[in-house]
Prior knowledge:
By secondary structure, the chain is of the alpha+beta class. It has helices spanning 7-23, 26-33, 41-51, 69-81, 88-102, 105-117, 131-134, 241-275, 289-318, 324-346, 357-371, 374-384; strands at residues 122-125, 154-159, 162-173, 180-187, 194-201, 207-212, 221-233, 279-280, 283-284. It has 3 domains: 7-120, Orthogonal Bundle (Butyryl-Coa Dehydrogenase, subunit A, domain 1), CATH 1.10.540; 123-239, Beta Barrel (Butyryl-CoA Dehydrogenase, subunit A, domain 2), CATH 2.40.110.10; 242-384, Butyryl-CoA Dehydrogenase, subunit A, domain 3.
Amino acid sequence: MDARFTAEQDEIRRTLRELLHKRCGSEELRAAVDTPAGHDPALWTALADRLGLPGLALPQAYGGVGCSATELALACEETGRVLAPSPLLATAVLTAPVLLALGTAAQRADLLPRLASGRLTAALAVPGTALTTALALTGGNGGDWAGGGRVGGVQARRTEDGWRLYGQAGQVLDGHGAGLLLVAAHTGGFARSRVLLFLVPGGAAGLVRTRQTALDATRPQGRVQLRDVKAELLGEEGADVLPALARTGDTAAAVLAAEAVGAADRVLERTVEYAGQREQFGRPIGSFQAVQHRLADVYVRLQAARSAAYYAAWATAHTEERVGGLALAQALEALRTAAAEAIQVHGGIGFTWEHDAHLYLKRAAGDELLFGPAHRLRAYAADAAHLFGAGGEAV
């Protein structure tokens, strides 16, 4: 295994960092999250047209760049550094891989080129707080998480003119503004209970969407209500959607780990810089050994998380291992530690709305709520690997 980056990978990172430095500073970030969409459409267009970011990991046959999840993870590491709000995660990481894996030839030919070009954005709508369950990150996804029984979640029923959906999904990333919704729904009643995925256009009759107030404003979320909405089944009716969701979950976890590493790296950089400027007792606080030790601990955590994230991204394309959840757990902890130390070192100003430190802390906490927490990610990975016996002892 050659761990060095290729010239193409280095170019992706360099070009993206330059673009985001110019177009996604602190002021631009704050202005973008306050818009109804929750992101800057002009920045999204630039990311799509100049860098092909939405289609980075899609095949060239569908208008994509044809790269792997490794390149997508490296790109998200750069977007994570500036906490760039965009539909990239919902569209390219969570939705497009499922469409590619399960869609019919006609569905792929119609939707994937538009997703790759950035003209169409998409969101994966999962009921309640079951996103990590659906993606098989914190537990098996074989249960009734989409809405078991006859009530709750999202239900699907077949009619003479096709499928109809009714129910609600909250905390849907970019669910309030995505042009296409990929909705997980329960069907079959008690006897033949199963989960299917459905395509719902953003302007469908009976679809009501509302942007939610989220802890992390850089990850806009929406509540999706389906009131007898006509929907198109994704793929063939007999297809098993659960393995495809699990594979997508592992890749998404690796990409999210890289994104968290990027955020932790940037907040540590800013903290070290400030520690060299802020003076106490007539000298910079960065010269005190206690501060140095704390920041050194953050650096060690960051480098370990970066190595885990890079390996997890590489493993999605080259091995059968599913280590994305473990990498994500380590990256989330590194980001939380880096953000907490940033606020501590910055002192009183670190708690204020005017400073960006709180944005990184909210990203860390918000991602743990959406995709974790870290101890559950590790616990499920241990169970899947049969690491512990029935008595809780190592085997």
